[in-house]
What does this fold into?
Amino acid sequence: MKKMSEGIYRRNGMIYTINNTDKHKYYDEDILIHLNNYYRQWNPYKSKISASIKKNLKEIPISRESVILYLGSSSGTTVSHISDILTNGKIFAVDSSKEMMKKFMKLAHNRKNIFPILESARNYKNYDIPSDTCIDLIIQDVACVDQVNILINNSDYYLKSKGKVLITIKTQCIDSIKKPGIVIEEQKEILKGKFKILQTLNLEPFEKNHWLLLIEKKE
Amino acid sequence: MSENDLIRNKFIKSVEEKIRTQDIQFSILKLLYLIGLGFKKGKTHNALFAFFDTYFPTILFEAQKINKLKKIMFETKGDYDSLRKKTSYSLDLGIEKKYYYNEISSLVLLMLENKKSNEMLNEINTIENELLKIIAPNLNIILPNEVLIKLLIHTTGLKRLSQLTGSKIQVLGAEKALHKHKKGRATSPKYGYIFEVNFIKKNKSGKLARHFANKLSIAAKIDYFNKNINKDFIDSVYSSPMMSDSTSPEGYLY
It folds into this structure.
């Protein structure tokens, strides 16, 4: 096992996180037992964050104690791996769908660092997050037309200055007629007012027409 | 318990409450429709899935396969408390709000045993009537139950139905004919689910169907924003010159 960053390991080209709970599986992922630790395989075809790590993300902004706001948690495949990494941190998972939240509650009961929120990401003032919490990182995975504006609203309200953001953009969802390269440049220019863009990644072999941006909030 | 756990429990409880109360009446209505299909055509799978989805969603995720669910249902005989013990965590309905649980669980058991009787079908109808009066009081007066339930299920609830235009509501349920028309192989469809309304069936007029569908879209909007019966609107439906010949002696359109 080779350590990539805090809590993330690599072996034979696959990425792993260590499981901390009694229940070893959440979905049908592969498990590898090494030195009495249960390593859960983080599949890049199922999770966009894992795909970005495979495509050489410059820095992984997740540490043991970071507090994360995750917009668009869905059924929670990615959230389960991030919760493995955070031993002293918290993750607030937001989703608007009732059906997805039913599945997600199974995960939320087992893990002590997950805080579920059933709310649309547009109504960012209704989350009821305690006022003394300071959020270090926002991860956004909602596929909709005004997703950049949603991110700006959320980050203005919750994110600390110089906090990092990982945003995945599905270009077909914003404009299906224009070329993906042009759409991503347009979205970048909207972001440039409030953020500093550190890296842009095309997730091509794993996801078609998907891009991931690593950005930092200006002071 | 640490402070962190207390805050976390607060979040979990608020989410569970939202899941429970969101559209519970509509999901029971859908369940009853599927049970009705199970009695008539012998297709029990969908009804069983829907039963666990509305009352015990956690058992559905853990068991997943239809044979396991059947086994659980026969073992417990649909008893609420013994089913609650089977889950690792619960989305319980509370003591006061059981939402027709006893009636529906007995219906599901009879459906699985293939015992069909007229009393059961009557019981389904009575519960449906009660629910429809709460969900959509104005639409309930204008439309027969079967048509209204089909419209609601097709559009996944009153919210979506209230956003549709009259011309869309007119052809709901006639998608096959609509796509054929769009490819240029046929004339446009005049009516979908609405065809089962008696006076449209009798007259077979597209103009009447269009006029009626427009009224439906207004009624859906009234129901979504205000749950009371609007007498002025209903009078205007009955008194319009196009519909005046079509009313039955009791005063109902259908």
In short: The mean pLDDT of chain A is 90.
